[in-house]
Amino acid sequence: MAENSDTPITATDDIGPDPSLLVVDDDGPFLRRLARAMETRGFTVDTAESVAEGIAKAKTNPPKYAVVDLRLGDGSGLDVIAAIRQRRDDTRIIMLTGYGNIATAVNAVKLGAVDYLAKPADADDIFAALTQRPGERVELPENPMSADRVRWEHIQRVYEMCDRNVSETARRLNMHRRTLQRILAKRAPK
Question: Where is the Response regulatory domain (predicted)?
Answer without folding.
Answer: 20-134
